[in-house]
Amino acid sequence: MSTTSTPLKDTGVGKKAAGPVEWLDDRIGLAGLVRKNIRKVFPDHWSFLLGEIALWSFVVLLLTGTFLTFWFQPSMAEVPYDGSYDPLRGLEMSQAYASTLNISFDIRGGLLVRQIHHWAAALFMAAIIAHMLRVFFTGAYRKPRELNWLIGIGLFAIGLIEGFAGYSLPDDLLSGTGLRFVDGLIRSIPVVGTYIEFFVFGGEFPGELIIARLYMAHIFLLPGLLLGLIAAHMVLLVYHKHTQWPGPGRTEKNVVGYPMLPVYAAKAGGFFFVVFGFTTLMAATLQINPIWAYGPYNPSEVTAGSQPDWYMGWVEGAVRIMPNWEFTIGPQTISLNVFIPAVLLMGILFTVLAIWPFFESWVTGDKKEHHLLQRPRNAPTRTAFGVAGMTFYGVCWIAGGNDIIALKFNLDIFTITWMARVLVFVGPVIAFIVTRRICISLQRKDNDAILHGYETGIIVRSAEGSYAEAHAPLPPEKAFALTARPRVPELTAPVSEDENGVANPDGRKARLRAWAKRFFYAHDVDKPTRFEVEDAAHHFHDDVYPPHDFPDDFSGVSETGVPKQH
């Protein structure tokens, strides 16, 4: 007995649906676009999940934020609190703070959703920063992805503003202290600072409009910008195709991985529930932002030990370690002690991030397209700059909690502050030197493994009585990955004049570029040549324990006798 199935397009439902679908396709041409990209291939590596964590945490933010908007009241009008939290009952507070308390104590599931929202915001920023670091250290921003790098910087900047706006909305004493910090930041802008402050706050701080304005920016303007940038980011990702790690069969002209449907879509969809579940678990077990412990905002009070969310803590730290530099010109007081570490420093940060791909391309002269990633050790100078930047950020971040550190460890706060002032300059330099030397050492280690194989842990005694450790050649796929990198470019002196003795009009710029290129590449260790690899292969056959005597799945043993993995 046999049965035959009727194709969907030939069924009654299929024929009825075909008309509208065909009409729509004739006008917008989606069928061709879908057919072209439905089998789009995506590589598989754990580091690529960092961007997905940012994407799915943003989806969680949209879902939980929609729930919270049903009950939040973005008003600074004073009302007596009559909710279920007894310690604050009868106290005058803003409607924004009262509604946040009601969400926390009187709306079923409100506190859980609030905490999911806050944890998702922290996870969103953490994932963006980790994703950007992955892109930076692997050179994934190189041509043709410079525009996508700039979009990522835009997402990072808007995410910072969106996070600040979000944790300012409850109008509790902690968020009000943060608003006071931003008020001082705005005022520090020379000449126009006070005018901008009056424009933002609708008068002198705190005014009566800032919560409503932040609310509209938080739920409408900034999410719209984020959605637009995320969409552009994803479109360019598909258009340029995904980067991949070097390996057998992987070139600059192909992608080895899984198709969009059904494999990658199923994995990505499942990962969304993993992110949502993990965020919910944190929200259910780890308390964050207990606004009822702080009380309503009062401009005359400051919360003891107040700290901003972690991704803004480095700005706080930069302000704390800045000397008290300010001077007066006529009626204007120029507060460099706030303007330099807060306004100017953030501007420098985003400017450096934005121009880095173009600066590196100019220095190296590399104009080719790159779809294969670089191991961080194979770009020692870039990796060293990245670690130096992380060190600078870390010192500022620690300085942002100098009062808490002094209290918990019984240390002198002035000593901590002065140590941070020194380390913020010395630390990045030390980190740069150490990191570059580590990368160069790892390059030499890779070359040694390519030429001499890996240590097997097997000690062999020769006929003469001497002892030696047997080495075995790397597996072909491992050796391929270690050698799949470009050679160090030749470093030549710039041409100062032509054959007629005429000076090069761009001589100064050429010398600067040659110096920068030498600084970038001079210490790199080049990979072995083909002749060196072939010569090394002959030595394995003369070894005291020939490699063909090892089992196929053997990878050596450690000092404790435990089998190792490549």
UniProtKB/TrEMBL annotation:
Catalytic activity: a quinol + 2 Fe(III)-[cytochrome c](out) = a quinone + 2 Fe(II)-[cytochrome c](out) + 2 H(+)(out)
EC number of the protein: 7.1.1.8
Cellular localization per UniProt: Cell membrane
Keywords per UniProt: Cell membrane, Electron transport, Heme, Iron, Membrane, Metal-binding, Respiratory chain, Translocase, Transmembrane, Transmembrane helix, Transport
SUPFAM superfamilies with a match to the protein in the record: Transmembrane di-heme cytochromes (SSF81342)
Region of interest called Disordered, as start-end residue ranges on this chain: 544-566
Keyword Cell membrane: yes
Domain Cytochrome b/b6 C-terminal region profile per the UniProt entry, residue ranges: 247-441
GO BP annotations, alphabetical order: respiratory electron transport chain
GO MF entry, a single one: oxidoreductase activity
Protein species of origin: Mumia zhuanghuii
GO (cellular component) term, any one: plasma membrane
Membrane-topology annotation of the record: Multi-pass membrane protein
High-level lineage: Bacteria, Bacillati, Actinomycetota, Actinomycetes, Propionibacteriales
Enzyme class at the top of the EC tree: translocase
Designated name of the protein: Cytochrome bc1 complex cytochrome b subunit
Cofactor requirements of the protein: heme
Ranges where the Cytochrome b/b6 N-terminal region profile domain occurs: 20-246
Coiled coil: none
